[in-house]
Design a protein that fits this description.
- With 366 residues, the chain is an alpha+beta fold.
- The chain folds into 3 domains: 2-114, no CATH class; 122-211, Pnp Oxidase, Chain A (Roll); 223-363, predicted glycosyltransferase like domains (Thrombin, subunit H).
- Helices cover 33% and strands 30% of the residues.
- It has 7 helices and 13 strands.
- The strands form 2 sheets. It has a 6-stranded antiparallel β-barrel with strand order 1-2-3-6-5-4. The chain has a 6-stranded antiparallel β-barrel with strand order 8-9-10-13-12-11.
- The longest helix has 38 residues, at 2-39.
- The chain is globular and about 70 Å long.
- The termini are far apart.
- 28% of the residues are buried.
């Protein structure tokens, strides 16, 4: 009997020790969670909301929200789903908190090595890279990289349809600018060594540069799309987010971020235009007001890609866009929404987008 009592006491003592240890470890985990949250710039109230999200999503290591993109995505996706079901999307406090989560989510992705690490010399430029070639006193030409080897770069013969006079390229000093995807803009000086044919393309050999000047780091994450949209010339009194209710010029949205987008239109256009792009997303209309910063004109198909920098967006609209960019929409809508929009476009565009009246092609031609 005495031995049995000793065994029972020992068992209870072990259980008490394990429970106490578990509680202590759990307490330490949450202390670490709040410390990491504070370091990440969240307020105590926001950290408490994150703690509840982590618990609701059964995150085994809650502090991983502050460094693990997949774990943070689980919580944001759960929050977006809850907002949609509860109808709390119109509350400003909810939208502000979601916006802060998206900012932190963007920071985690932008800090990834594949985005953070740039390039240091022209030998690292990928073939096919689009280029802008500046000739002092003459103008800016379009080109692309045909071949990159250890001795020189081979670029397609630069073109500018506005410059009619032929240029003797050999020996010409040039400056080359390009935008590296998911990275930044770069510029370097070079010299044309020879005029050649490469891969069946009239080309130039230009000298390498051992130092590239990094001009601007990308500040947003973009998603590739092919979504029917409408383009409008902006009026002086236009404000961000105002939905159009009259016909406009049909176009296709090719990429999208919370700071801008790219659209394909027929004909030519010029940088500096103030425009609006309107499209459907998550069963609602989005209208983005901004400025055309650059244009890629493809003469062979008479189309232009307009790269548009958006004016600051209302918080709710920005959150809608980032939900698409980061893939936070429910799976069933991610699958059906693009097809619905394209079908509507073929039928005359849905009422949800507030169909737009046709702006003449001449209005956007340069």
């Amino acid at each position: 009997m005495f031995v049995l009592i000793i065994v029972v006491i020992a068992a209870l003592g072990t259980a008490f020790f394990l429970v106490s240890r578990s509680k202590k470890e759990n307490s330490m985990n949450w202390i670490q969670f709040f410390a990491r949250g504070k370091d990440a710039g969240f307020s105590f109230r926001e950290i408490e909301l994150l703690r509840r999200l982590a618990a609701m999503c059964n995150i085994e290591e809650p502090a991983s929200l502050f460094y693990s993109q997949p774990q943070l995505d689980v919580c944001i996706r759960s929050m977006v789903r809850t907002i949609r079901m509860s109808g709390e999307g119109e509350e400003q406090g909810t939208q502000d908190f979601l916006s802060k989560l998206y900012d932190y989510r963007k920071k985690i992705e932008m800090d990834k090595p594949r985005i953070k690490n740039g390039i240091s010399n022209s030998r690292q430029i990928n073939e096919g890279q689009h280029l802008r070639v500046l000739v002092a006193g003459t103008g800016v030409y379009r080109s692309h990289l045909v071949k990159n080897d250890g001795q020189y770069l081979t670029i397609a013969r630069p073109v500018n349809i506005k410059i009619s006079s032929a240029l003797s390229w050999t020996g010409t000093k040039i400056s080359v600018y390009f935008w590296r995807q998911n990275d930044a803009g770069y510029v370097f000086d070079s010299e044309v060594l020879d005029e050649v044919y490469s891969k069946g393309v009239s080309s130039l050999k230009i000298s390498h540069s051992e130092s590239l000047f990094r001009t601007q780091k990308r500040k947003s994450i973009r998603i590739k799309l092919h979504k029917a949209a409408f383009l409008y010339l902006a009026k002086d009194d236009d404000v961000q987010g105002k939905i159009e209710i009259v016909p406009g010029l049909k176009c296709f949205l090719e990429d999208l971020s919370d700071t801008g987008c790219a659209v394909i239109v027929g004909g030519k256009a010029a940088p500096g235009l103030r425009v609006k792009v309107q499209f459907a997303m998550d069963n609602s209309a989005i209208c983005m007001l901004g400025t055309v910063r650059s244009v890629d004109f493809k003469e062979e198909v008479n189309r232009s890609i307009l790269h548009i920098e958006a004016d600051p967006l209302p918080t709710e609209v920005r959150n809608q866009i980032l939900s698409e960019v980061f893939g936070m929409l429910p799976e069933e809508e991610e699958e059906t929404l693009p097809f619905r929009v394209l079908d509507d476009e073929a039928a005359g565009i849905s009422k949800q987008i507030a169909p737009a009246a046709e702006t003449s092609q001449e209005a956007i031609d340069a």
